[in-house]
Specification:
about 500 residues, alpha/beta, Aspartate Aminotransferase, domain 2, 2 domains, seven-stranded mixed beta sheet, about 15% strand, binds pyridoxal-5'-phosphate
């Protein structure tokens, strides 16, 4: 592996934003970082995308659609919380490949695992895990995944990505639903024949209840429960399944307790009404899917009260509650799983994961385990090489107390965002977050997009979501010094907008 080469100079500007003083780390102060080779500050010397990125874009554009490409990355030179592009620019990355880098780029611990002789065969050979697992598969699952299983869930299924984890979780719910309908009897010959032909009774009319602004992926079953932008859904014949309103809360949550409680009650009533309506339409609901914090849909939060109520409704209807923790899982909210913030009476029935977990998959309760082979299955059902890295990530989270770090850095970031929205009330609103899983709204989408572009030009890379929101999805190894760099740039960009 080529050496990771460079480091950059500290930057010394300290600015006052009137309410608190922030600054990029001073030359005299050691910058806090978990990876010693991480740069100290961003360096930008071309427009982003720069000339080399533009060239590569043209080249790639001859063979595929490149509409979503922002710039080309030099992954060899990216390090820690810093992303290097092919033009030599180095950005503080607070978006991390759509929320999927747990420790940082080229983390030394992962590089070490990559180079270990004993890991070679696992890294080179990609088995069909469902039929020919390696001898250490069970222990790898236990060391990496089961060691962080949500309390109360002890079954796990690996998958490749977020959407296929959601799809297969849905299948697990449908299988369990029909098994109950049959009262434990085997399927009839008619069911076995009609399912292959694609009609009832083998292919039953069942549904999954989801929420407005929910996002669960882009394959057909996942799309049926996704309700964000047209670009995700136009032209696809997805089934018409019930969708209830996700609470539209006022922030800060603790200052609008009464209003938010009324809104959550309204949404819970709607869930009950939809369950009833689809039962009457002869398309009963086999399960409920929800994100702990709606991400793609705009970083929308709900309170423990809402999720506890949802679990009660699911229990009353004897259907599973499935939590999509693809984006919220793996520590970003300050707990390993976001739902651990809610004090649920019982474990959720299914928890899907992917992104920072490096492998897709889901944890589930015993009663959702399929009884026949090949029911929840595909060629690879995951990738053992990811388990090598996940084990390192999980150990690092535990050994270095990264969940506490996320809480500390997150509260510092959120208080900085509160200060900014107080200073620029006409532009910014609704600062919100749990851990470093933070967001803030802009007065409109154009302003948001302009600020994102200008921030990137100052060496800070962030993502958008919803209509006019920016979302923070940094690594778990983010320190206050990194937040200072962001706040410095943010203040300068927003201050520039006003004048
Ligand atoms: C909550 C949630 N579920 C599912 C998915 C789909 O994951 P993937 O893009 O890996 O298919 C995403 C992706 O952003 C997500 O945020």
């Amino acid at each position: 592996m080529a050496a990771l080469l460079w480091s950059t100079k500290s930057c010394v500007s300290i600015i006052s934003r009137g309410l608190r003083t922030y600054g990029t780390p001073s030359a005299s102060k050691a910058v806090m970082k978990s990876d010693p080779l991480e740069p100290d500050a961003p360096v930008v010397h071309t427009a982003i995308p720069g000339p080399r990125s533009q060239e590569l874009l043209t080249e790639l554009g001859t063979i595929q659609n490149t509409g979503a490409v922002q710039f080309f990355v030099d992954y060899e030179r990216s390090r820690g919380n810093y992303l290097a592009d092919v033009d030599g620019n180095v950005m503080l990355d607070l978006f991390t490949q759509i929320s999927s880098v747990p420790l940082g780029y080229n983390h030394p611990r992962l590089v070490k695992a990559l180079l270990k002789e004993e890991n070679r065969a696992t890294l080179i050979n990609r088995p069909a895990l469902g039929v020919f697992p390696p001898g250490d598969w069970s222990s790898r699952l236990r060391n990496a995944l089961l060691s962080v299983a949500p309390p109360g869930l002890n079954q796990v299924q690996t998958m490749a990505c977020g959407a296929c984890s959601v799809e297969h979780s849905q299948k697990a719910m449908f299988i369990a639903y029909q098994r109950r309908q049959r009262g434990g009897q085997p399927p009839s010959p008619e069911e076995l024949q009609s399912c292959v032909e694609g009609h009832a009774p083998g292919s039953p009319n069942l549904s999954v209840l989801s929420f407005t602004n929910g996002f669960h992926g882009r394959t057909m079953g996942a799309l049926a429960v996704t309700h964000t932008k047209w670009v995700h859904k136009l032209d696809f014949p997805v089934p018409d399944w019930p969708c209830a309103s996700f609470p539209n809360l006022q922030y800060p949550l603790d200052q609008f307790h009464r209003e938010n409680r009324a809104e959550e009650d309204r949404c819970l009533d709607e869930v009950k009404e939809r369950l009833h309506a689809w039962e009457k339409k002869n398309c009963p609901v086999a399960g409920i899917i929800v994100e702990p914090i709606q991400s793609e849909g705009g970083d929308n939060h709900a309170t423990s009260y809402f999720f506890q109520g949802l679990q009660d409704i699911a229990n009353d209807h004897e259907i599973p509650l499935m939590l999509d923790e693809v984006q919220t899982g793996c520590g970003a909210t300050g707990k390993f799983w976001a739902h651990e913030h809610w004090d649920l009476k019982d474990a959720p029935d299914i928890v899907c994961f992917s992104k920072k977990m490096l492998t897709g998959g889901f944890f589930y309760k015993d009663h959702l385990r399929p009884q026949e082979a090949h029911r929840i299955f595909n060629t690879w059902v995951g990738d053992p090489s990811k388990m090598i890295f996940l084990e390192e990530v999980v150990n690092m989270i535990k050994e270095e107390g990264l969940l506490q770090r996320v809480k500390d850095t997150g509260s510092y970031l959120l208080s900085g965002l509160y200060d900014m929205q107080t200073k620029y009330p006409g532009i910014l609103s609704k600062a919100r977050g749990l851990g470093t899983y933070c967001a803030i709204d802009f007065k409109d989408a154009d302003t948001r997009d302009k600020v994102l572009n200008e921030l990137r030009q100052k060496g800070v890379h962030l993502g958008s979501c919803g209509n006019c929101t920016i979302r923070f999805r940094p690594t778990l190894a983010l320190f206050r010094d990194h937040v200072d760099i962001f706040l410095d740039a943010f203040n300068s960009v927003i201050g520039g907008l006003k004048s």
